[in-house]
Amino acid sequence: MTGTLYHMDFPLPHQLILFGPPGTSKSYLARTEKSAALLNAKDNNVVPVTFHTDYSYGEFVARLLPLTDGTAITYNMYAGPFIRALAVAYRCLSTAAKDQPPQNVVLLIDEINRGNCAEIFGDVFQLLDRGDDGWSSYEISVSELTIKALNAELGRDEATSKPLPADVLTQLDNRRLRLPPNLFLIATMNTSDESVFFMDSAFKRRWNFEFCPVGFPSHFPVEQATATVTTAPVRDWATVLNALNAFILAECPSRNLDDKLIGPWFIKAKAEPTLATQYKDTMAELTKASKGVTVANSGRDNSDKFDKKLVEFAKTLAKPVQDRIFAFAEYNESSTHNKLRAIAYDLNSSYYLSTKHQRGSDRVIEVFLEGLGKLSSGIATHKISQADIHGKLFLYLWDSVFDRDKSPLAKKLGVQTADLRTFGQFVEKADLFIERLFEVETPAHPVTTENVA
């Protein structure tokens, strides 16, 4: 290609596979950090597809399908995600400003190893060799029907339709395809799954692979890392997961330990209920009590009663929740009146301000109650549910990590392997197993003549 060459610094390899253990944010990274941030490819410039065992070349590239209209049957060529992504990339070539790189386009393939890549890619495999300019090093010949499907996709956006570069038009007239430099293929691969298709070395060498490790990076959402798993004692998701991965590294007999570890998104934390939803009756009582601050000659007394009612309620809750409430309320225990400094009050008469006082303050008692109701009612703002711990995490340990040898699980629980023959026997000891992850094992002292009686 000579007529459409331009200078480009490619921020990513043109074919990239993100791989690693489950829960390591591969799909999220592909869509955000790789596609959106580095390539600035968003919305319609990202064409997603998920491979599966029955996925075929026709579905991926293009296929002829019947269309029934009454009694008449017609056949149309339908573009698959590969042809759709190619069409978007070609359109971006035609609309790019002179001497400026076109917008990038991403064909996003989730679970690439769940499909038979050799069958799905077919002759498209040849296009994955790229030159220094980003164009495919080799062309492939395609059928007239495939070109028809491509042209149909090219004509979809008539508002921005412009003539394609001359060399691209010549290429299509000759029923040949090449991948342009603004088309990137990003795929994800969960290496721990065994029910996947083999990728041969010829296919893999045309891709760059980037490993996604387990762990909690500095930019990781705090609500996920600090989500509660156990409450007595309180342990969060990051603490439990780090201990669990350390156990897997120490005890799992697999030779591919990276495949057996567990990423921080293996289970997504759920937001805890708010005070307003968890304690509806109490919040209704507080709202009713707040009305008294506007009563003439009783505003201060009723403000004091409101303080007392809120403090009594807070002290019935777990200390982390109590501390959250007091911090929000700016609670000043030593104050004689107006202990909740988050609410504005009358300096002379010490009653809390309400919207009825029309003082122009946004720290009135109604606003305070609204914010109070939105506070989390849990020890942390988010929680990993017990159902997910049992039905996802422990099933994964049983079925994938220690599928061949249950003795490390039995040893950690302090039972005989013969007594741990079913998943039910394992999951009923889930709480004990988590606690045992944090027990420090004391090494046995060797017997010497000095310690023998």
UniProtKB/TrEMBL annotation:
Top-level taxon of the source organism: Bacteria
Residues passing through the membrane, by range: none
Domain ATPase dynein-related AAA: 16-206
Coiled coil: none
A molecular function (GO) term: ATP hydrolysis activity
PANTHER family, alphabetized: 5-METHYLCYTOSINE-SPECIFIC RESTRICTION ENZYME B, TYPE IV METHYL-DIRECTED RESTRICTION ENZYME ECOKMCRB SUBUNIT
Protein name: AAA family ATPase
Taxonomic placement: Bacteria, Pseudomonadati, Pseudomonadota, Gammaproteobacteria, Pseudomonadales
